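Hi V.,

Quick status before I head out on leave. The structure for the redesign project is tokenized and pasted below; the design run finished overnight.
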């Protein structure tokens, strides 16, 4: 008797959650017949780097040809910027492909991967999808509890995922905390450090991760062009890691994973220092302003080092997001990331943030009154 195809799927894959992206603006506007703003996916409100857009126009003329499968020019440029060797640079589809591929290389049945509860969901998915045991340590003060995570490492642990700043809470740990954590690990435990939001952090003691990598080759640093460079739609990210590890990872990545358009845009964006600095400065000012305005409404946002703000609003968090949505404001409910009473709001442009606050002022007080009466 022929077995059903579903029966051929390993048990550890059947229960995997599906990544839940923020709703597209077009879909919401078509459904509600109103102009919407999207503050759900931590995108750069200033848009792409102008230099990147010019490079994209030129690259389109060669889009009938396959891209450079080894992304040689881009890797060499990144290597020069960071002071590492080009073979220590891995190019991926944003950070997502890197998160997935390193788990496929290092994990499997009989091994374990470690991360935190309340961090970026694809970390846990990658560990489970490899067939390895998933171990998660609770956050402390909304950030990674590195001492507790070090205690959770066992002989079976081969991979640890950290996010600094953390998504979705926006918190960060410092250089000494990371140094102490790495010092407690053996060399056969790889630490994948996702620094997607590093450019936005104001904390003065943020880890100098590349410096640490030069001393500890079991560190894999993840970066992306999706945030400060404004290229989320082109899916370009990179890792800095030990050459032997990256050589194996390159065997598993998608062939021609970075398009010629994406490579050209990323290469040019690295030279657009003006756009990058303006993105950082604008986010810093608007994040501070939005934080204070949310507090004035009686909310309790968590101080953020990223381009979004995390806040707990109670058991009706999902309903609050729906009410905001009905007014054309898209934010992120976080039940799927382990915070059923929290939401995440991306820092938008001044106009977008003003609209969010105005709508929240209409929606939130009523819910607050209902909770007091109840």
């Amino acid at each position: 008797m022929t077995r059903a195809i579903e029966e051929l799927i390993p048990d550890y894959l059947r229960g995997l959650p599906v990544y839940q992206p923020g709703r597209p603006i077009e879909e919401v506007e078509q459904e509600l017949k109103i102009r919407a703003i999207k503050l759900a996916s931590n995108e750069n409100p200033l848009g792409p780097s102008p230099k990147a857009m010019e490079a994209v126009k030129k690259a389109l003329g060669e889009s009938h040809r396959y891209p450079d499968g080894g992304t040689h020019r881009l890797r060499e440029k990144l290597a020069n910027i960071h002071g590492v060797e080009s073979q220590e640079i891995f190019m991926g589809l944003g950070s997502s492909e890197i998160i997935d591929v390193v788990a496929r290389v290092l994990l499997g049945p009989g091994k374990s991967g470690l991360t935190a509860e309340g961090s970026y969901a694809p970390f846990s998915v990658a560990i489970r999808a490899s067939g390895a045991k998933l171990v998660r340590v609770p956050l402390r003060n909304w950030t990674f509890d590195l001492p507790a995570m070090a205690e959770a490492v066992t002989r079976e642990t081969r991979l640890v995922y950290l996010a600094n700043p953390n998504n979705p809470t926006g918190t960060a740990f410092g250089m000494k905390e990371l140094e102490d954590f790495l010092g407690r690990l053996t060399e056969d435990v790889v630490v994948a450090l996702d620094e997607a939001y590093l450019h936005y952090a104001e904390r003065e003691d943020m880890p100098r991760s590349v410096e640490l990598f030069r001393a500890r080759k079991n560190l894999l640093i993840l970066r992306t062009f999706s945030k400060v460079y404004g290229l989320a739609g082109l899916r370009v990210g990179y890792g800095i890691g030990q050459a032997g590890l990256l050589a194996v990872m390159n065997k598993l990545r998608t062939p021609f994973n970075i398009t010629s358009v994406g490579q050209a845009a990323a290469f040019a964006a690295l030279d657009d220092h003006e756009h990058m600095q303006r993105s950082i400065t604008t986010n810093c000012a608007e994040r501070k302003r939005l934080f204070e305005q949310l507090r004035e409404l009686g909310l309790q946002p968590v101080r953020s080092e990223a381009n979004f703000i995390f806040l707990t609003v109670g058991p009706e968090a999902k309903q609050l997001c729906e009410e905001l949505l009905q007014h054309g404001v898209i934010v992120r409910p976080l039940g799927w990331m382990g915070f059923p009473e929290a939401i995440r709001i991306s820092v938008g442009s001044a106009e977008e943030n003003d609209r969010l606050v105005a709508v929240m002022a209409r929606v939130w007080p009523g819910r607050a009154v209902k909770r007091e009466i109840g």
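Above is the designed sequence. The longest strand covers residues 157-163.

G. will cover questions while I'm gone.

Best,
W.
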